[in-house]
């Protein structure tokens, strides 16, 4: 399984998000505490500038994140209010840049930890369900990119929770027609650059871990001597596969089978239920 982190808040230098935490996403690429997997099959970051209508930028590589000197070079020169970062452990598709997360469509980013079970069996049926106008944009071979374009087909840019519910419902329908008992395992993050939506769901109800950071002021009161917290604005939120620092009271687990809207330092959690499209 992969590992990912998402940040939204006041603009910060990407280096502070990617490298500075004691259990940063770069550290997790080599040794994840909760996943017990080396995530060395490529990585990617996606970020937004401070312009109102700016398309997100991507930097992705098939190399391990811990061994990419260019990542540290550019991270020191990126200032962003919203960043996605992902380190990959392949579930069978090739280790190449086109298969690294995040994936982009216009202003939208998408990343995923998990898998669509027996993807090689259900792949044809799922991809044939993608809107023909969107299909030419698929450039990789992963289940994640397919799920993204299914969500776009079902209206991600207008209503993300409903679109993801329909996409997951389709995957479960197709999978079970092919004899797959548990077709979906996912933690997903997607954003339009202003709002984040995150999802935690699996068909077997045993989804990989996912956490969000608590209110920055609350965390500062718990740890007044931790200077790094002084840099976090009141609208700061992290959503992560596993905590970036061992700070009891700073993190809350996203419940199983739920989705959350994250914006302006707030997060609102709702139950998630797939629906057959």
UniProtKB/TrEMBL annotation:
Q: Does the keyword Hydrolase apply?
A: no
GO molecular function: any one? transferase activity
Q: Which SUPFAM superfamilies match?
A: N-terminal nucleophile aminohydrolases (Ntn hydrolases)
Tell me the InterPro entries matching this sequence: EgtC-like, Gamma-glu_amide_hydrolase, GATase_2_dom, Ntn_hydrolases_N
Q: Name one Pfam family in it.
A: GATase_4
Domain spans labelled Glutamine amidotransferase type-2: 2-277
Protein name as catalogued = Glutamine amidotransferase
